[in-house]
Design brief:
The chain has 364 residues and is α/β, with parallel strands linked by helices. It has two domains: 136 residues, Arc Repressor Mutant, subunit A (Orthogonal Bundle), CATH 1.10.10; 216 residues, Dna Topoisomerase Vi A Subunit, Chain: A, domain 2. Helices cover 42% and strands 18% of the residues. The protein has 13 helices and 17 strands. The strands form six sheets. It has a six-stranded mixed β-sheet. Strands 9-8-11 form a three-stranded antiparallel β-sheet, with no helix packed on it. A two-stranded antiparallel sheet has the order 1-4. Helix 3 crosses helix 4. It is globular. Belongs to the TOP6A family. Relaxes both positive and negative superturns and exhibits a strong decatenase activity. Keywords: ATP-binding, DNA-binding, Isomerase, Magnesium, Metal-binding, Nucleotide-binding, Topoisomerase. GO terms for molecular function: ATP binding; DNA binding; DNA topoisomerase type II (double strand cut, ATP-hydrolyzing) activity; magnesium ion binding. Its cofactor is Mg(2+).
Length: 364
Amino acid sequence: MSTNQNDELAQERLIDLAVEFYDQFAEGDIPHMDIPTRTKSNIVFDEDSNVWVYGDRKSTRSANSVRGARKLLKATYAIEFLVNQLEEGRSSTLRELYYLSESWDTEEAQFNDQDESNQLIEDLEIVSNVTREDFHMRPEESGATLMGPLELREQTRRGEREIHCQEDVGEGGYQIPNNPDTIEFLDHDIDFVLCVETGGMRDRLIENGFDEEYGCLVVHLKGQPARATRRITKRLHDELDLPVMVFTDGDPWSYRIYGSVAYGSIKSAHLSEYLATPEARFVGIQPQDIVDYDLPTDPLSDSDINALESELEDPRFMTDYWEEQIELQLDIEKKAEQQALASRGLDFVTDTYLPERLDTMGVI
């Protein structure tokens, strides 16, 4: 679907929501909006699709209370703003929407804090079945990058441009746009995608020429990956039929980074089928590596131990592999960073560690 078609669909869905409120008034009903209950207890792991999704429980935003009426009022103001933004071909950040509400002519429609405006945008995504990217809403921070043998065409305000993500970019790589669905993949020599947690490790791989030697597209996750990063990763897998590997530190929080790439996150459960790549595989630092390579480590904190124990109860990690690794980590009471591999030399990660792991997994 083209960008213009996406814009038109987003406008249409938003206007339909407003029309629904008017129809409820006309029929003598109290205006209301039903959305899935966004609590942990209403998030279920769909074993067919291997992603987190919302369950059947619904919450109703109804004007039959002052609090509910305020929420619907704010929703209608936000809908009007988003429709106008789309008509004008403009965009804004989530932070700007919060401040912009200060200028709305009804004080009751103004947001109390940014959490409230962020949550409303998520509500509108869920009930309209349109993503915030198609509302032209951007997060405040972005900047995740990719580097590798991929040629693409992107839509910009200055028209289309074609970019080769090795030859036409500097050492920093190609910056992933807020809405990766505006990118068209033209050609590639990629054998696999490697999603890397830290900037230091991403730079080591590029400096050592890992992307060129192994036909690897290196995607820098920048810690917990943004939606745009997860979306382009899914597109690379689905459309180009590429294996996706996730390379992180060896701690429970990094395992959750892998989990969000592969299975989705609780916060964005309504978008799991759009963002998650269940076929993604973990190639990060394993507790077994800490033992085998005698890596420099830090002791597990109490919060690390609690997180590991909760992961043993998490459907995403209920496999023989993860149970074995997590139990081992709880036993040795240690964690290690990606950069700990440098204790074996700066080239160890690209000459030995990753080639051996990826060969064992049948990727190279």
